[in-house]
Amino acid sequence: MSLAFLFRAVTREAVKVSVSQPVQCLHSGCQLLAADKALLMKLRKSTGYTFIKCKEALQRFENDIAQAESWLHEQAQKEGWSKASKLEGRKAKEGLIGLFVGKQAAAMVEVNCETDFVARNEKFQQLVKDVTLATLAHHQDKNENLTGYVKSVLTGDELNKLSMGEGSSLADHVALTIGRLGENMSLKRAVTVGVPAEWHIGSYVHGNISGQTEVTMGRYGALVVFQGGKDEERDTLGRKLGQHVVGEAPLSLGNVDDLPCGESETRLLPQTFLGDPSRTVAQFLKGQQARVLDFVRFHCGETLGEQ
């Protein structure tokens, strides 16, 4: 056998190996790529982060999705706080009022952002929901053993300190949302009320965001604490009173025997009732065998003190 023949034979075998081996690697690589893509889609769906960030997280933790998700949240938190510091001076007068009414307690909050576009974003609305429910939970924990009427007003600084569970605060949650949406945001204020069993809480939100059921959201919100009314009509009564407070913007309660002073009237009871201009609010309540004890009105973006 000649050396030339041997050389050609060895070369052919080498070519076979070099061709077949990458094909095998490429085939197994395709299986790995498919698995990565499935995890990537799952992580993207559960966290809302970009594909690039999700891919980086999966590679960092060798496809351990739990560790990847935890790392993504930590990074977003850091980026959010950094971005929040940079955006701190920018005006945030848009946003939403969030309102939740339970059996004997209610909470209403104002969360601000820079634009109406972000206010319509699901992530911002989730922030409003979380702030509202955390505020109500704080009220219930603080007043667990109280049985009378309890009303608490919280400033933005007080809201920021409230717990979201697992060691994070509402301030952390705001920073996280800033990092995701890239706008300045702030917690402006909140009010909570708790009532005894024979009292009731009416509410109304104007410009209600569709699709939000547990926590109602809009540009204006009102809570009305009242007694009386017919059992089957009490929800409607509370809503009508809330609509009036939002629409007519009273500043004080007044007395049932106060005489109305026209369109400039700022006391609730002598105001012309929005639902029936032939009567004052006091006259409407008398017909319903009810009385208003307190109310609160929020207008998103208003300067405090101009309500």
TrEMBL record:
InterPro entries found in the cross-reference section: EF-Ts_dimer_sf, Transl_elong_EFTs/EF1B, Transl_elong_EFTs/EF1B_dimer, Transl_elong_Ts_CS, UBA-like_sf
Key word Iron-sulfur present: no
One GO location term (cellular component): mitochondrion
Keyword Protein biosynthesis: yes
CDD domains assigned: UBA_EF-Ts
Biological process, per Gene Ontology: mitochondrial translational elongation
Segment forming the signal sequence: none
Keywords of this entry: Elongation factor, Mitochondrion, Protein biosynthesis
GO MF assignments: translation elongation factor activity
Residue span, Translation elongation factor EFTs/EF1B dimerisation domain: 106-253
Subcellular location: Mitochondrion
HAMAP family per UniProt: EF_Ts
UniProt similarity note: Belongs to the EF-Ts family.
Function statement: Associates with the EF-Tu.GDP complex and induces the exchange of GDP to GTP. It remains bound to the aminoacyl-tRNA.EF-Tu.GTP complex up to the GTP hydrolysis stage on the ribosome.
Protein name according to UniProt: Elongation factor Ts, mitochondrial
